[in-house]
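User: Hi! I'm working on a homework problem where we have to compare a predicted structure to a textbook description. Could you give me the structure for the chain below?
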Amino acid sequence: MTLTHDNPAARLRDVLLAVHRAFPNSRAQEPISSWQAFAQVLEVEQHTSAGLQAIAGVAHLPDLVVESIRALNEEPEEEAHLLLHLDGLQAAMTGLVARKSLYQVFATFAPGGEVPRSAAMHSLASAARVLHRADPLHAMSDEDVARLEVLIVDLMDEVNAAKLPPRANFLLLQHLHALLQAVHLVRIYGRGGVEGAFDAFLGAVVRRPETAEPLHEANLLDRFKDWVSTVNGIISVGTGAAGLGQQVMRMLGS
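Assistant: Happy to help. Predicted structure tokens:
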């Protein structure tokens, strides 16, 4: 992963540069659709729900940049400067969703398809720095992403092996799959996407405390508590990571 800041401007810039590296001008004019090229770089299958989710996420990033910049309440002149060229990127994403050729999408915001040297990319870099100063989130490292994948898959394997009652098994595996998907798409949806899936998982377990009894009977409750603390320690920014597992246990009545 090349980006360091985690905000929509940084993520959009990273994805566009990655696609251009894979398909520079010499290849961008080949008969390949933008959809196919982006899916290939993002390592998702074009015709799957994961592929649709990935492309939709990329297409929405320019709008998120606009919303984030406007939320800063900068002086009108500064805001206008930061939003310069965003309309070209929004138009490019419309072309992506329409499955136009990759060169057409690039040329929408980068004359001659020269993505790295385009004014739009320089604007995204400026927006990324300003947003980082306002909310200094850092992108997850490749090591953190790899650790999360292993942790999630290991817990999925343990849940499957425990042969829990169907309702508890479904609830746990459904949310673990969603969390794993968020980790796979962290390059697009960022740390916030992973945190949201994790929060939804914990919220579902807390709202369904009957899930705790099967976990206890399968000797997985303490394991689940440790897993919650470990995952939260990786994805969370700030304090409170260490105590989350205990909080979840208290809410489960254990």
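For your comparison, note the following. Residues 14 and 58 are 11 Å apart (CA to CA). The chain has 14 helices and no strands. Good luck with the assignment!
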